[in-house]
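Comment thread on ticket #2218

A.B. wrote:
> Attaching the input chain for the structure job we discussed in standup.
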Amino acid sequence: MGIAMMPKCFKKVICAICCMGILSAFVYGAEVKNKPAAKNSSPKKATQTVNTLTFLGEKYRLKYSTGNSQQWINEYLLNNENFKSYTKMVAVRSYDALQSTPKQMISSMAANYQRQHPNVRFSVFEGANGDFGMGFFMLEGRTMEHNLYRATTVNGHLILIQFVYREYAASEQRSTQELQTMGQHVKQNLPLWKQELLSMPVPPINKTVILE
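C.D. wrote:
> Ran it. Output below, let me know if you need it in another format.
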């Protein structure tokens, strides 16, 4: 799963504030938090079933699924990747018992992230039909990870869709060059990632336990 959504007991201390600052400043610059992005009025259709989905032309397969009566999570990876070394992931979370709007969900996530990492910039944006999203970096060990989230509702239930992009440094020290290369790639692809995330149909939740 993505670093940003790991249970606290599985997280290592993420203390590279200066490194995340390099990445965030490079990609987001002086962007004002909570500045709405342009709304997408013509959603793009994507091919998907309960066990597969397509994101920007790439096919992902459901490789992790677990939950309970209150919430459920599905995590999709590219067919040839696994959780030890994946580069991209799409996750879908259903919160059946949570009484929050998409705006409230993203606002709460943004506030928590800002408290944990007050010196790091992040992006909060608005989609169509009341959807909200946010993007930010996380660093842990050799892993350099960019997260995008979209909060939406389906039949009154809150749904959170996450897109993760990862690169891996040669060592846990992470050179400035590696961080800048990561930042450049994210900066080039971020508009497409964001557009796809905001416009894709919400994947159906598979409520069968799958552990790969």
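A.B. wrote:
> Thanks. Noting for the ticket: The CA atoms of residues 64 and 144 lie 21 Å apart.
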